[in-house]
C-alpha cells in the first residue's frame, strides 16, 4: 500500500495536476474571501470564515474529481491494470494507496488557507475575535468532506477507462451526496420524514461540525460514506470486468 501511495503521490507532483488543483483552489477561495464584494470578508464586516467553508465544497466538487479521474481509468486505458494486479498486493492495498494519495493532495490544498484564519484573527475588533472552535470544526468537516469526495472519485474512476466520463460521474455523485438529499428533503411529500432524509446527506453533518461541535455521529457518518464508496470500488476491481 505504501508503495502505491508513494508512486501515486509522486505522480501527482511530477505532473501539473497537483499544482493546478492547489493553485485553482487557493485562487478561487482567495478571490471569494477577499476580492469579490458579494462574498468578501472585508465587505461583510464580521471576522469569520463562512465564505471559505460554505463555498469550498462546491469548488471541491469539480477539483477533486479532476484529481481522482485518472486513478484507475488511466491504468485501464494504458493496459497496465492487469500488470498492477499481478503484483504481490491485495485489491485493498491498491485502492487505499490510490485513495490516500488523492486525499493527501486535498489536505495540502487546505493547509495554506490557515493564513486566512490568522489574517482574520488579526483584523478582528477586538483582535482575536474569531470563533476558533467553529473554525476548527469546519476545518475537520472540510477535510472529511474531501475524504468522501476522494472515495467517490476513486469509485467513478474504477467503472470506466475514460477519464472524462470518470470526471463527470464523480462530479455528479459528489454533488448528489453533498446537497442532493438536502434538496429532496424540502419536497412536501416527505412530511415528518424530511429530517431523516436530510440527515442522509453530507451537508447536514458538514454544517453541524461547522458549529464547533464535533459529534461522534458526524464522524461515523463521514467514515461510513467514504468506506461504502471504497467498498464499491473493491467490488468493481475484484470483478475484473474490464
Strand content: under 5%
> Pairing-aware structural class of the strands and helices?
mainly alpha
- Could you tell me the radius of gyration in angstroms? 19 Å
- Give the overall average pLDDT: 85
Largest sheet: none
| Bulk shape | globular
Number of helices: 13
Number of strands: 0
Fraction of residues in helix: over 70%
Low-pLDDT residue spans: none
Beginning-to-end CA distance, first to last residue? 22 Å
Taken in chain order, the helices and strands follow as HHHHHHHHHHHHH
Summarize the structure.
The protein has 242 residues and is mainly alpha-helical. The protein contains 13 helices and no strands.
Structure, described:
The protein is 75% helix and 0% strand. The longest helix has 27 residues, at 132-158. By secondary structure, it is mainly α. It starts with a helix and ends with a helix. The protein contains 13 helices and no strands.
Topology, element by element:
Blueprint: H1 2-13, H2 17-34, H3 41-44, H4 50-68, H5 73-78, H6 81-85, H7 91-110, H8 114-123, H9 132-158, H10 163-184, H11 194-199, H12 202-209, H13 216-239
Essential attributes:
242 residues, mainly alpha, 13 helices, 75% helix
